[in-house]
Every structure is written in structure tokens, then in C-alpha cells.
Design brief:
With 172 residues, the chain is α+β, with helices and mostly antiparallel strands. The protein contains two helices and nine strands; from the N terminus they run αββαβββββββ.
Length: 172
């Protein structure tokens, strides 16, 4: 059985990789998910084969806005490049950041209406800031499919996620 931390790690990666907004009102903005209950299927592969998880997440409008504003601060503090653009009905984010002493370069592609469904694909490479003989390089691919389930979150609180085994964690 997987630990709870591993179960929710891909969700945390996605939250901090793709939700920041830009301060320039004329720049492309990122889509916000509709408030309510979402089913999220996430597949992550770091080179050892894909791992997948499905969970439910309760989102409210304030949670989305808080996540976006918190992420803006996070990315401004840690990224030398953070470029958001719209192309062909998708939002694409290219970034070059430093987290926990590791360089993370990523491209994120977001599509869908974010009212009934969405798809997020992230391709990232994590390395040492300066290449060394023994540098560890991690190439990661994450795909998340979101499907809107209901206006009502049932027993889940806003910001709370639930795994198939009933394990719950507050992610916001």
C-alpha cells in the first residue's frame, strides 16, 4: 500500500507548477476550475514506469483565488523564467525555477473548459543548478485529467481531497 504522502505528491506538484497568474492584465491568464467536486486522475512517470492515482477534490472559488495568489509569490521568488501563453485553445507555461536547491525546467500544457473537464500535461527536468560528474537528472511527466462531478462536495470540505481508500488530506 502506498503512503499518503506519495499518493498526494503529484497533486501538490501540479498545484505549484501550473496555477500562478500574471500581474500584467494584458497577458494570458490561467484557467480556474469551477467550484464543486472534481474527480482527478493523475499519472506520473519519473523513468521507473507510470504511477497513477484517482482522487476527489472539493474546490471553492476562494480556494482557487488563494492558490493562484500564493503561487504567484512562490514563482516570483523562485523562477528566472515564467512564460504563460495561449495557443490553439490551450494555455502553455514554460518555466525555469530553483526549488530546494534543484533546478526545475518545465513545460505545462493546459486544455479544456475547466468547467466540466480539463487536461494538464507537465514535462519537467530536475537537475543540480550546475552540472557535476555525479549529477542526478530526473525527467518527469505528469498528466492530470479532471472531470467535474457535482456542485455539492458531499462530506468533503473546500480544499480537502479524498483517495479511493477514504484517506483524506487538506491540500489548501
Amino acid at each position: 500500500m502506498r503512503s499518503t504522502a506519495l499518493l498526494f505528491a503529484p497533486f501538490a506538484i501540479i498545484v505549484f507548477s501550473v496555477l500562478p497568474a500574471l500581474s500584467d492584465d494584458t497577458a494570458p491568464t490561467l484557467p480556474e476550475r469551477k467550484a464543486g467536486l472534481w474527480e482527478l486522475k493523475t499519472v506520473m512517470d519519473e523513468g521507473n514506469g507510470p504511477r497513477d492515482q484517482t482522487m476527489k477534490l472539493c474546490i471553492d472559488a476562494q480556494m482557487e483565488k488563494t492558490t493562484v495568489s500564493t503561487s504567484v509569490v512562490e514563482h516570483k521568488a523562485n523562477c528566472t523564467t515564467y512564460d504563460v501563453k495561449s495557443a490553439g485553445g490551450s494555455t502553455i507555461v514554460d518555466s525555469d525555477c530553483l526549488y530546494n536547491g534543484r533546478k526545475v525546467m518545465s513545460t505545462t500544457n493546459m486544455s479544456g473548459d475547466f468547467k466540466s473537464a480539463f487536461e494538464i500535461k507537465i514535462q519537467s527536468t530536475t537537475t543540480e543548478p550546475e552540472q557535476k560528474a555525479q549529477s542526478v537528472v530526473i525527467k518527469r511527466t505528469i498528466t492530470q485529467l479532471g472531470k467535474y462531478v457535482s456542485d455539492s462536495c458531499g462530506g468533503l470540505k473546500p480544499g480537502e481531497a479524498e483517495a479511493p481508500d477514504g484517506t483524506r488530506v487538506l491540500v489548501q
